[in-house]
Amino acid sequence: DNFEKTVASNNIVLVDCWAAWCGACSTFAPVYESVASRHPEHVFAKLDTQSQKDLVAKLGIENIPSLLLYREGTLLFKQPGYFSEEQLDDIVRQANSLDMEKVRLDIESESKSKGKVN
Question: Is 17 annotated in the active site?
């Protein structure tokens, strides 16, 4: 219910897309929680794909576990699979280091170039 508000009103938001029946999701959960404990300045959320099917469809989540990362409301990372603590820490570090003004300009430029007819 609070997905869009959470993404829009926080700097960095990571979302673990999971389901109770998913073995890989259960294995990834302690990794996710461990990394979350090292980054209290960010929001680490969990999206239950079984109970939030409309949102899952809207987000285009096809496999679980999947990780989404938003910064300043912009989706920067969407990847299915299991991540190690080192990989997840690196994803967070890279998101922290981005120049978001440049990212927005790149996205705007890319969307304009897709709209051109040659």
Answer: no
Catalytic hit among 3, 10, 19, 22: 22
Write the DSSP string, 11-47. Answer: SEEEEEEE-TT-HHHHHHHHHHHHHHHH-TTSEEEEE
**Identified catalytic residue from 12, 13, 14, 25:** 25
Encoded amino acid at 69, one letter = L
In whole angstroms, give the CA distance from residue 46 to residue 18.
7
pLDDT, tens digit, 9 for 90 and up, residues 13-45:
999 999 999 999 999 999 999 999 999 999 999
- Give yes or no for a contact between 45 and 6, defined as CB atoms under 8 angstroms apart: yes
Pairing of strands 43-48, 74-80: unpaired
Active site residue 25: yes
